[in-house]
Amino acid sequence: MLDESAPYIPKGIRPIEKVIPYKDCNYYTYTWKTTLTGERYRGRILVIHGYRDVHMVYYYTMEQLTKAGFDVFYFDQRGEGRTVLVNGEKGTASDETAFEAVDFFIAYNLKVLSQESKPDRLYLFTVSMGGGIALNYAAIGKLRTKITAIANIGPLILLHPKTYPGKWTELLVRALCTIPWLQGAHVKTDLHADYIAGDEKYVNYLADRNERNPLYATLVESRDFLLRGRKLLTSERYEKIDKKLPILICHGTADYINDIKGSREFMEKLESVEGMENKRLIEYPGGRHVLFICEPEIRDKSIQDVVDFFNEFQ
């Protein structure tokens, strides 16, 4: 069902909703199918979204990707969106459950491509926290060799100082997570709407949504997405990334959620590895956290940059 209050309503292709059970979770999924066929069909995109993200803010982006010849598959992660445990409870995510879900949905989407007799070109497209998951997956994921290319929007490698809760808060969260029964405890996590979006319509939409449904994370979620990003800056992690795997990072210079310095440092470390290729960072002056809901000139350039990158690696 479309959110008619969203800033943009699809004019053509609309998402197909489906609940897919896996282990103890019922995952809500959304698929946008391109009408292009034959040589005009470009591949299938698996979206790994950001923290407390909603697919409704990507209606325009998904429409543009399908027009470019891609099928797009989006799933609400464990503890996110409409996805719930089989017992109806919300659930919570950790590194283990996040990577297991990526394993499952890579295999699922490759199976769909095979059933539809389409080329097995599967791209990962990520936003924020999803970027931290995908970039780590590129180093240690079970099915990482099945990925054609990855495009990341403002990946969570380092939180920006304006969003980072502080060293003492982090240490407290990490200490509390050593107590198993406290890992699922919830903490409020305010994110400024004008840090996320640059387009006023989306700023207002997100601000209204957050006022009606304040954002909360579990302690283990907070711990894992912080540490997961930092791991990418260690040689034990970035040196394991396939030297030929195409990776694009798109990051706005006015992103006050995730620090662009993290993306720069990560790219520098990748480039320091002998033989590393097909890694690229594009910076967007004045771009906020989610480039696809920024001003039209930033939005359209970032979408086209992703399309061009994926088309480069067919």
From TrEMBL:
Question: InterPro entries recorded for this chain?
Answer: AB_hydrolase_fold, Hydrolase_4, MAG_DAG_Lipase
Give the source species.
Eeniella nana (Yeast)
Please state what the protein is called. Answer: Serine aminopeptidase S33 domain-containing protein
Give the source's domain of life in one word. Answer: Eukaryota
In this chain the Serine aminopeptidase S33 domain maps to: 42-292
